[in-house]
Amino acid sequence: MEAIYEKLIKKEAKLAVIGLGYVGLPIALAFAHHFEVIGFDINPQRIALMQQRIDPSNELSPEAFEGADIVFTAEASDLQQAHFFVVAVPTPVDEHKVPNLRPVLSASTTVGKALKKGDYVVFESTVYPGCTEEDCLPLLRQHSGLQVCEDFKLGYSPERINPGDKEHTITKIIKVVSGCDAEALEQIAKVYETIVEAGVHRASSIKVAEAAKIIENTQRDLNIALMNELAIIFDRMHINTLDVLAAARTKWNFLPFFPGLVGGHCIGVDPYYLTYKSMELGYKPDVILSGRNVNDYMPAYIAKKTAQMLIKKGKNPGQSRALVMGITFKENVSDIRNSKVVELVNELKGYSMTVDVIDPFAANDELQHEYGLGLCPEPTGKYDCIVVAVNHRQYACLDEAYFQQITSNDAIFIDVKGTFYHKIQQLQYWTM
User: Fold this and answer.
1) Do 39 and 50 form a contact (C-beta atoms < 8 A)?
2) What is the DSSP letter of 148?
3) Whole-angstrom Cα distance, residue 285 to residue 109?
4) Measured distance CA(25)–CA(8) in Å, rounded
5) Is 385 a catalytic residue?
6) pTM of the predicted structure, to 2 decimals
7) Which CATH number fits domain 4-204: 3.90.550.10, 3.40.50.720, 3.60.10.10, 3.40.50.2300?
8) I need a surface site. Which of 3, 126, 153, 213 has the fewest CB within 10 A?
């Protein structure tokens, strides 16, 4: 029997990507420059945009669609034509920080119904070690009636998409791959080697590949948590954290992490998948949970600091107007999922402040739908407080004269990421 890679490269078999968000669409388009691809998403509105060469996530330009051999569809029946399936659906947590596996389990059911002998299924969604084989595989077997390794092959290749990053794109980052057996590993590696210029790393097992992904973001989460805790300590000592870090970075092995709000669909979420599985196995991961607690506390901490500074200026927080600049989870992206700035806005409102929010990337309708918050087209009137929460590139050209035009007397300037450090001299300035 001819190997799946050979069939794909000869376009005798089709590759399907399930889930066309920040992760799935770039992967689908990359594959579509070499293979015949079916791009599947359950949202017909998103499919309609992609059929017009529009990325709903605003990450890719229309040129990225050029030359791509791809059909976009919201019809699950179209997946019957595919023989190599890549699952790239989101894996969020619920309000109790418990992993929400519904999207990936639903995708497993959908793929299972389309699965045939000789097919391959590769998961890219971030999950805890064991999820692919313990939670997803049973659904594949149930709905296909097939046996793994004997009838179809299973693999896991963790996504490494970084929204807003135009340098570390999918083709330039080493891709970790794994398979249920040696044949699966080799074929999956060859498929990904077709698009990844940096090459692939063959993990020894599916669980190892799952674990590698989960600790990448857990490590970053803990390092940022340390910086956030240091920022709280240094603030009480009346020394600037950025000055401390600038001095510490002169040592060759100091890791350059910075304090900030940790949101989004990766760093602020993935550690909970690991802690959930760990506690299920009877071990409480104190260090990881402690880091999460510190990072989750930061919106409340910044809001409290803002209120305290207003009071010191003789202003009543309940009668103050605040302008929050940036609402997305990170700079230069439109993604508002798990944005800690939303929590910061709600914390400021908890002090009865009137809060206006502006953002050049976020969509007002989406923000209203997800969080019940609206965007202002532009600043209006005078503000007692400016909070630069996200360092979008549009803000870099602004100077203190601009901010003085939109602020009242004795206004304060909260610079979450230190974007304007040493640039604000007249307004009362604070950064983490």
Assistant:
1) yes
2) B
3) 32
4) 19
5) no
6) 0.93
7) 3.40.50.720
8) 3
